Amino acid sequence: MPALTAGARPLKPAGSSSYILLVQHLIEKCLVFNMDQRECVEALSKHANILPAITITVWNELEKENKEFFSTYFQNMKNRREQDSCSQAAPEQMFGDAAAQVRVQTLDQD
After folding, report:
1. Distance of alpha carbon 41 from alpha carbon 52, whole angstroms
2. CA 60 to CA 74: how far, in whole Å?
3. Which is the most buried residue in 15, 18, 20, 23, by most CB within 10 A?
4. ∠67-24-49 over CA atoms, to 5°?
5. Cα angle vertex 67, ends 64, 70, to 5°?
6. How far apart are CA 97 and CA 87, in angstroms?
7. Cα–Cα nearest to 34, from 76, 87, 84
8. What is the chain's percent helix, strand, coil content, to nearest 5?
9. What is the pLDDT of residues 44-96, one digit of tens each?
């Protein structure tokens, strides 16, 4: 991604329409990476030097204008995160069960 800052200041004044469109574009990129608002605010603040208040304001406006999209997006994100937590728990449970069986077998052999 090209550098979006000039020194420690944003490239354009925060009120300009091209700056708002830039923030909107960056938020859309965050959505492609399945980020929630907090993650997007942190990423844009850290990597593009966008003030959190600006990101939050643009995000909230996008949500207002695209209610159906965000409703589906948040539901899909929730489902994905639930699947991820189940996927992470399955190996732990599997290895935990296997370790318990090994302990039982070891005790039986003694």
Report:
1. 6
2. 14
3. 23
4. 135
5. 110
6. 16
7. 76
8. 75, 5, 20
9. 999 999 999 999 999 999 999 999 999 999 999 888 888 877 666 555 565 66
Give the number of other CB atoms < 10 A from CB of residue 27: 21
- Sorted by sequence, the CB contacts under 8 Å of residue 31 that are 6+ apart come out as 40, 73
| pLDDT reported for residue 1 | 35
Altogether, the residues listed in the chain come to a count of 110
State the residue for tokens 């000039």.
Answer: 6
Q: Which residue has the tokens 């589906």?
A: 72
Half-sphere exposure of 32 (CA within 13 A, CB side): 6
35: left (phi over 0), alpha (psi -120 to 50) or beta: beta
